[in-house]
Amino acid sequence: MTEAEALIALNQLPKTGPVKIRSLIEHFGSAAKALKQPNTTLQQVQGIGPEIAKLIADWESHTDPSAEIALAKERNIQILTQQDTAYPAALRDSHGAPVILYVWGQLQERDINSIGIVGSRKLTHYGREAARKFSFQLAGAGLTIISGLARGIDTAAHEGALAAKGRTIGVLGSGLMQVYPPENLALAEKIADGHGAIISEFPLQTPPDRQTFPQRNRIVANWSRALLVVECPSRSGSLITANMANEAGRQIYAIPGPIDRPTSSGCHDLIRDGATLVTDGSQILDDFTHLNFTTPADEQPRPPETYLDLTDEENAVLKALAHDDHAIDDLVNTTQLPSHKISVILMKLELRNLVQTLPGQRFKRRR
Q1: For residue 123, what is the enclosing H or E element?
Q2: pTM of the entire structure?
Q3: Contact at 8 Å (CB) between 32 and 2?
Q4: Residue 12 CA to chain centroid, in angstroms?
Q5: E strands within 201-331?
Q6: Strand order in the sheet with 144-147
Q7: Are 218 and 244 in contact (CB under 8 A)?
Q8: What is the spatial distance between Cα 131 and Cα 37, in angstroms, rounded to a whole number?
Q9: Distances (CA, A) of 222 to 73, 83, 190, 225, 227
Q10: In whole angstroms, how far apart are CA 328 and each of 124, 240, 319, 351?
Q11: Strands 100-105 and 114-118, how do they pair?
């Protein structure tokens, strides 16, 4: 058995997390040697009690690393260990680093220039707009956006990065064959198809549960160079992620919201406790200048007017919004396009950060 196969086997066993697996490796010299030990010897390792020792000693009854490797290959999924060069260096150096990373898509060296973006699943219009705006700006400048592919702010952050034709990484709290939430499967596929990667430390068919999400959050916190909290209440998993990032020495940013809205109270708590208040992505980019990150010349951000190639119909809608905000009926009269087509165009332009939706289903051009 190879060391990688042994690590996959240990990672598949219940109740053997990265810390316990590391203890086994330090005690016996390798994961492969640990799997050869009898129950009584395994119990001599710190943190390995009788129950876990029994599972490890009888690992062949509970796990099949060969089948896992074959399934990953069939689904075009990489399995990385900490010894692989593609394994993120920032994550490898963190406490409790995953012993295994499943990667759907491709990781690149420039992903070292990354920022985590997190927030509430129950987002407001304000939160969605802010997440898309910041993600669009930061990804367009060359930063990789890391988030959790969850509903709400996470989804908006990934969408903003894609609209900027930048890179983004989704970290799952489930196995890669159990994408959650299921409605984000199409988003995951788009990310993995040349725009970044979807990753997980959990075996391929692991379902999500309350324990897996906090484990996912530590990956976002430790991998990212900095963390941006967009919108969250005072009791939120995003604050746990922010605390993890702070303990790891990462810079914390927070976007303020209306002072009477509980949906932003968590961000206000962070700001009061020392997080940097930001209102535009350029403020974060100014802090990142010491990293000297670069983007390939053919991927450098272009001026807003030429950032993306627009169709004639999309340009017509943008032109109609040049001087004022309008309802869809106004745009129908101006462009002579049917309302259903205008609705689709507005959605696309909003994702590209060119159009903003206002209350009352009115729309305005951003620039």
Answers
A1: none
A2: 0.79
A3: yes
A4: 23
A5: 226-229, 251-254, 276-277, 326-327
A6: 78-81, 100-105, 196-200, 168-171, 144-147, 114-118, 226-229, 251-254, 276-277
A7: yes
A8: 50
A9: 28, 18, 25, 8, 9
A10: 22, 41, 14, 17
A11: unpaired
What value, to the nearest 5°, has the Cα angle with vertex 295 and ends 290 and 299?
150
The angle subtended at Cα 223 by Cα 277 and Cα 263, nearest 5°, is 40
Task: Report d(CA 321, CA 303) in Å as an integer.
Answer: 19
In 167-268, where do the E strands start and end? 168-171, 196-200, 226-229, 251-254
Rounded mean pLDDT for each run of 10 residues along the chain, 367 residues in total: 96 92 95 96 93 95 95 97 93 90 95 95 94 93 95 96 95 96 96 96 94 90 95 93 93 94 96 95 81 44 46 88 87 90 82 74 79
Residue of 17, 24, 23 lying closest to 57 (CA atoms): 24
Instruction: Read off the tokens for 358.
Output: 């206002």
Q: Which domains does the chain have, with CATH numbers?
A: 1-68 (1.10.150.20), 105-299 (3.40.50.450), 304-365 (1.10.10.10)
The token pair at 187 is 């988003």
Q: Give how far the C-alpha of residue 163 lies from the chain's centroid of Cα atoms, to the nearest Å.
A: 15
Residue closest to 247 by CA, chosen among 276, 216, 222: 222
Q: Which two tokens stand for residue 128?
A: 């969605």
b or e along 286-298 (b: 16 or more beta carbons within 10 Å of the residue's beta carbon)? eebeeeebebeee
Q: Which of 359, 293, 322, 365 is nearest to 125 (CA)?
A: 359
Tell me the longest C-alpha to C-alpha distance in the chain: 80
Whole-angstrom distance, CA of residue 95 vs CA of residue 318: 49
Alpha-carbon span 35 to 9, nearest angstrom: 9
First-residue to last-residue Cα distance in the chain: 59
Give Cα 150 to chain centroid, integer Å: 9
